[in-house]
Predict the structure.
Amino acid sequence: PNENKSPSEFDVKRVLHQVKYLGLCENIRIRRAGFAYRQTFEKFVERFYLLSSQTSYAGDFIWTGGSKEACIQILKDTDIKSEEWQIGTTKVFIRHPEVIWGLETMRERYWHGMAQRIQTAWRKYQAFRAAKATKIQRVWRQKRQAFELIKFREHGDGLLGGKKERRRFSICSLRTFNGDYLMVNSRDKHTRGFLLREAAQIGSEPAVFSSRIEFLVPRAMRSARPMPRQLVVTKDHVCIVEEKVVDGLVQHALVSKIDVAAIKDLAMSPYQDGWTVVHLMSQPDLVFNCEFKTEMLTWLNSVSQGRIHLQVNSTISYNNKNMKSTQIKFVKNEAVQRAVFEKKTVQVCSGLPAGTRSQTIRDRPAGSTASRPKPQQQQQRATPTAGYNAPAAARQINGNANVQKQQRATPAPQPVQSAVQSTAPSGSSRRPSAPPPPPPPAAMPKHPRHKALFDFSDANSGMLSLEAGQLYEVLEKNDSGWWLGSRNGVEGWIPSNYLSPEPEAASHQAPHAPVIPPPMAMRNNPTGDVDNQQLDSMAQLAAALASRSPSNNVTPTSEKGHVPARPGMNRFAQEDSDEEEAWE
């Protein structure tokens, strides 16, 4: 567009002259007066199919019809007025270019929105991943110390070597070797553990084990007796602290403090008691009862680098405060529940076998209470699918429980008195007995009951046969078309289309009590206001008339319908006899 015919030069005047000479301005004016945009159906759909939910899903083209119908659907979904577009034979016409600009803007927003959704989903995934990783790390940090304590406890079981009976509490699966049970390592000055640390004079040395014990205290001119004390074990010392109350204040005093290096070994009995004798070098031995004996032995073996071992014997010798050899004996007595110390003899009952190992959560036996399902949990029933026979186990699910429920719901039978009342001889009459109480109302069914419309029988296991007209309880409804039904305590799968869709209404009426026929005299008097005296007088009158009648010489008996009476009584006697025969 220049005189030099160079592609890099642009002459504005010459270009304007060429546009006017070629009539482009007039062509553009005419086109703008009509339809400014003309495009084929295929290209229009390829460009703007993302703007309609009928033609796209997640960026994919899902339209199955023709291109012309797709163009119409896109223009309708974008809310463009019908005056702005026109559908031709092969092309779509749009009158104003602003409509095309709006479609392009909507297309750009669509891709921008999809990018935002992808970014949001990715950020959520990263946050979820980081949160789960943090949770796993936190749980691992919390449980790592517990795992170490469990391994430490298994090491203590090995130190016993199957030589000593075990207490049931010692092998509890939730029992771990925590060590400091008196909180001696606490830095809070207002706690009892801090006072024990001050009394034990261990300074900043951490305590590996602390517990309450019964320390054998010697007495002058009398035998020693166990007294409550506190035991504190560190890496270098074993301390015995006494706790007492003076003038209403708790005070602690150090009873004994020995070095771990001065301990030769530990001695225990082969029974389940906790009495322990600590043999020392050139010092009086320590004798005490500790509930956590296995843990104490494990910690002492650990801090001594495996030097301290265990001796097991039913008679243990030790040196008293005067360094004289004394013996303590252990005997079995099943009458005592806890170990009893009396006159240097410890009586203890039998415990678990000596070879019993401490149980953990991993090797807990299947018969333990922890492995049993909770009452709230229910077993999942196997549901048959369409064209598949239900398993045989579905018929036995909770069968015993349902039978027990039916037995509890069924009322106990009430004793029914005899309906036929024995007729009293003439001249005597008794008051009629009270009618029996009505039976209790029938228990309401727990599950809805549906009536079988057709007969159904199947030899496959797990199915329940149907009989038309009978009611069946529906325990569970499944969308596959098979329902779990029950009748007479037998459960099984039944087809739902063989049952009525609406459950049967439960009857709240109680069964009627048996009708007891009234006595003879009460039948003649429907109002029931005849008392015993009137009955007696009527019987005496009938007997007197019978004795005077010359045609009736029969002695009155207790047979039914043969009692002579005044004229007009035979009709009632005959009716009474017929009613009694019908009742019998």
